[in-house]
Amino acid sequence: MTFTLATWNINSVRLREDLVATLMRDETPDVLCLQECKSPVDKIPLEKFASLGYVHMVARGQKGYNGVAIFSKLPMVEAGAEDYASLGHARHIAGRLENGVTIHNFYVPAGGDVADREVNEKFGQKMDYLTEMRDAFSADKPTKSILVGDLNIAPLEDDVWDHKKLLKVVSHTPVEVAALAEVQAAGDWVDVTRADIPEGKLYSWWSYRAKDWDEANKGRRLDHVWATSDIAASAHSSRVVRHVRGWEKPSDHAPVFATFDL
Fold first, then answer.
1. What is the pTM assigned to this prediction?
2. Residue 212 C-alpha from the chain's centroid
3. Burial of residue 165, with CB atoms counted within 10 A of its CB: 0-12 exposed, 13-18 middle, 19 or more buried
4. For 199-242, what is each residue's pLDDT tens digit?
5. What structural domains and CATH numbers belong to the chain?
6. Helix/strand/coil percentages in the chain, nearest 5
7. Which of 2, 115, 13, 109 is nearest to 70 (CA)?
């Protein structure tokens, strides 16, 4: 079974439902994982997406904030949702396909502007969230699983536009990068995107504040596709669909794709 998966922080699924529908029509992923849906589950525009073939959905939502959803053309059942760090936020949902593959969709807290939990509660929440992810994967080692989402960390030097300038900027600080590496190691996860595209600058997010985002290209790779090591070799054709960031009234993220032969 071959299927293509995409992950995208949509920054409001209701505000950008037409963009989601356009991506579904143009790129036709079999599975589409969205983050920052900013909608209760019952307000997600299911009819439009179902009309395009995405008749299966698992989701967690809340009004105006956070929210994660997985839309699938393939049969899928819910496989759990965790409230890491007990924040009461809709930041995780998992779905299981008929072939037994579990897909985890995460929206890790952004962490605010200051990389110090003593003065910035949001940074502490982010670090606690990552710690609980690590501990969960250590306690229950995942297999035949894919993890995607906006992890709000750009771990590698080539995942940011300027490594030295961003070392003290939340999303690329050494303490965050180390925490994400612990999460990855705990679940024996393989970074599928970088396994496919090991060299060169690669971004999935460009700030709204940069009107010349495309020309200046000051981006970060915050959106990730991982797979457990038992299935990672089946992944290929990774890509960032960069031009989507230039659509009218876009999200500040671009979708990240990968294909799996399982």
1. 0.98
2. 24
3. exposed
4. 999 999 999 999 999 999 999 999 999 999 999 999 999 999 99
5. 2-261 (3.60.10.10)
6. 30, 30, 45
7. 13
